[in-house]
Amino acid sequence: MEISYLQPCIQLQLSNEELQNVIEKAKDWALMHGISMRPKDHFNKNQMQVLPFTLLPSSFPKKYFQKVKSIQVLLNELMHKTAHNNSFITKSLKSTIDVDPFTGKLFEIYETVYKEGFTQTLSLGLLRSDYMLHENEIKQVELNTIASSFGGIATMTSQYHKYILSELNHGDKIQNIPENNPITGLSKGLVYAWELYDDKEAVILFVVESITYNICDQRFHEFEIRKLNSDIKVIRRSLRQLVSEAKLGPNKELIVGNQVVSVVYFRSGYEVEAYPTEQEWAVRLLIERSRAIKCPSIHYHLAGTKKVQQSLAYPNALNTLLEDDGTVKQIQDVFAGLYSLEFNNEGETIIEKAMSEPKKYVLKPQREGGGNNVYNEDVKQHLESMRNSNDRTAWILMDRLYPPVQKNYIIRAQNEPFENLCFSDVVSELGIYGVVIGDHEKILYNKEVGHVLRTKLSNEDEGGIAAGIGAIDSPYLVS
Predict the structure, then answer these.
(1) I need a labelling partner for 310 at 20 to 30 A (CA). Which of 88, 243, 416, 459 fits?
(2) 214 and 466 in contact (C-beta within 8 Å)?
(3) Taking the chain, what is the end-to-end CA distance rounded to the nearest angstrom?
């Protein structure tokens, strides 16, 4: 695979002493402005450390940046319509739910509330569509419908990169960093959903992990909501806490403690570990049965699974969901190759291709949160091991994307001494945030609200920021 390159926004010419001073200042700026998280290796909720971040903004072609920004409202519409198309979701997940217990449990909840009739017909989607550059194109990696994170920290990172360019005497380059304020856009979606519920006493519930490391990003939402509307109170609970605290009122209100909940915002619940017992599953069903507006609702959650997204890539699939041919073409243009591993000719053909050229593909399970995908020779080994097993239908294959490489410094809490810090080869992934609210008949609110860039060393396969591999970044737009 031929590697392409992008020029960094600055060719830094600093001595070790100058670099050390700049990095110390950058770290302090990041800590003071919430580009930080709780340490995982010695958890203490009263301690913080910098989230991995890039010293400089990373170059990104302006035309591709504008292209994916412009189609986010179309993707919002697509995901909304997909989530409300029972036959499409059911058909897409038919084989997966038999072999993937986690997706099967989610689908069981969906089937239950679908058959009963949704108590709350409105859904709120805070979405993030992720992209990589590849061979002079831009292609979608995935679309997240649950816990689309880093909106708050991305807002601050854009501000940080403007600061650091000035600090390095390159203030003239600030104009190439696009304005970015996803935290306000995402929080406005939560506030609008709260207003639609129409109960001034009701609270917004954040469903969170039992131990939260990425606390700053979650609190940014909470504090921004209060700034936008001082009447709104946010409460935080884990699914475990909700087992004893949540109940339904006489009109199917969701009640936590003695407070009515208007909006449920899931920042947890997309991973198997969130449901250690049947009690957590029962609480998830109780929430779905309630009048509270969910972000995401169970059907939105399922619409974000890899298998449903693979189904959307089939020829003519979009035509069954969207009426406008121009919209269909724009969306299909950013789709990467996604392939089913069903027991049919298509499945056998793609397995043969992937086993012979494993570096051209990524093997993906039905999981969110990073760290789950399979790369390189492991693709071949995985496919060999499950080729004759039904387990393979719980996975999809995707064309592997090879974005252009450039140089940057990745700043971490632990990367001292500074002499060991290198101007390293890195690659980036761009995320575009969207907000959509509506029911099965109409969309009431549909906006693109900002972006995030995540960057990793070019030799890394995974890029999770919270896991310490990737780094939060900002695009520096180039022609």
Answers:
(1) 459
(2) yes
(3) 24
Residue in this structure with the two tokens 């449903």, named with its chain if needed: 308
pTM above 0.85, yes or no: yes
Residue type, 4: S
Provide the token pair at 314.
């089939």
Which residue type, as a one-letter code, is found at position 241? Q
**Phi/psi at 288 (5° precision):** -65, -30
| DSSP string covering 123-176 | EEEEEEEEEEE-SSSEEEEEEE-S----HHHHHHHHHHHHHHHHHTT-GGGGGG
Task: Please enumerate in sequence order all residues whose Cβ is within 8 A of that of 204, keeping only pairs 6 or more positions apart, or say none.
Answer: 190, 194, 225, 232, 233, 234, 235, 261, 262, 263, 264, 265
Q: Which residues contact 234 (CB under 8 A, 6 or more apart)?
A: 203, 204, 205, 206, 221, 222, 225, 226
Alpha-carbon distance 141 to 449, whole Å?
Answer: 19
Tokens standing for residue 408: 């940057």
The Cα–Cα gap between 401 and 359 comes to: 10
**Which of 38-52, 157-171, 422-436 is predicted with the least confidence, judged by mean pLDDT?**
38-52
Provide mean pLDDT across the span 386-391: 92
Sign of CA dihedral 149, 152, 153, 159: positive
Burial degree of 329 (CB within 10 A; 0-12, 13-18, 19+): exposed
Nearest to 239 by CA among 217, 202, 272: 272
Residues 6+ away with beta carbon under 8 Å from 138:
64, 67, 68, 131, 132, 334, 430
Identify residue 451 by its one-letter amino acid code: H
Nearest to 26 by CA among 406, 415, 405: 415
**Percent of the chain predicted with pLDDT > 70:** 97
Question: Is the pLDDT assigned to residue 416 strictly greater than 80?
Answer: no
Token pair belonging to 158? 């854009």
Task: Give the helix/strand (H/E) hosting 205.
Answer: strand 203-207
| Residue-level pLDDT at 14 | 86
User: What are the residue numbers of the active site?
Assistant: 128, 142, 144, 149, 306, 364, 368-369, 454
Amino acid identity for residue 385 in this structure:
S
The residue whose two tokens read 């049947």 is 278
The pLDDT value given to residue 372: 82
Q: How does DSSP assign 238-291, residue by residue?
A: -HHHHHHHEEE-TTS-EEETTEEEEEEEESS-SSGGG-SSHHHHHHHHHHHHSS
Residues 6+ apart with CB under 8 A from 236: 205, 206, 208, 218, 222
In whole angstroms, what is the distance from residue 280 CA to residue 292 CA?
A: 18
Residues 229 and 288: their CA atoms lie apart, in Å, by 26
**Average pLDDT score, the chain:** 94
Angle at alpha carbon of residue 362, lines to 358 and 364, rounded to 5°: 135
DSSP-derived letter for residue 119 is S
